[in-house]
Write a structure and sequence with these properties.
The chain is mainly beta. It has one helix at about 1-15, and strands at about 20-30, 30-35, 40-45, 45-55, 60-80, 85-105, 115-135, 140-160, 160-175, 175-190. It has 1 helix and 10 strands.
């Protein structure tokens, strides 16, 4: 009877704990740089980020994210006078990272619902570019893959069951580093 009561008590306590799973969706902007045939171009497109995570402990979590940037463009790049290039691209990255956070309510007497965090992880990306060369009336498509490490910092502010999240990240790419900044809404599952 004591063992049965202990099991029932443990089940009730576990049911009252909040879920360790969370998911978020947001908007991001990237300082994107590309190159085609020796011609460099840049853009700051808006994209979306969808992510999910699992809290391993109160201050540590594992996250998996998908970044999707479309509408990256060079505009019309003048060439030698006889050629003009119009370059468009899309970029997707899958990011696996650890997130380490600290609640400011543990440090400050007014107990704000604010947490600061840092992230470190790895990513794999795929860029698809399309180049229209008006000088030779030709279109070229190319796909590039890249992988590397990513670091970030940010903060979340709790509003009910939703966390409002802002973060910046730096991706170590084969062309140098690339930055992203984003805001998102994060939802915790369960209680």
């Amino acid at each position: 009877l004591v063992a049965l009561l202990s099991v029932c008590h443990a089940a009730v306590v576990q049911a009252q704990e909040p879920s360790r799973l969370y998911a978020g969706v947001g908007v991001l902007s990237s300082g994107y740089r590309g190159e085609h045939d020796g011609v460099s171009y840049g853009d700051s497109p808006l994209g979306i980020r969808v992510y999910g995570g699992y809290r391993l402990r109160e201050r540590a979590a594992f996250e998996l994210a998908l970044d999707d940037l479309r509408g990256i463009g060079s505009g019309d790049i003048p060439g030698s006078g006889l050629r003009r290039l119009d370059i468009s691209a899309s970029y997707r990255a899958v990011v696996a990272r650890g997130a380490f956070s600290l609640s400011l309510s543990e440090l400050l007497p007014r107990r704000p619902a604010l947490r600061v965090f840092g992230t470190a992880g790895v990513y794999g990306s795929r860029e698809e570019s399309h180049v229209r060369d008006s000088g030779i009336a030709d279109e070229i498509s190319a796909t590039e893959r890249d992988a590397g490490i990513v670091f970030g910092v940010g903060a979340t502010f709790r509003v009910g069951r939703v966390n409002l999240r802002a973060e910046v990240e730096s991706f170590d790419t084969s062309r140098g580093s690339r930055g992203e900044a984003g805001v998102s809404a994060e939802f915790r599952f369960g209680k």
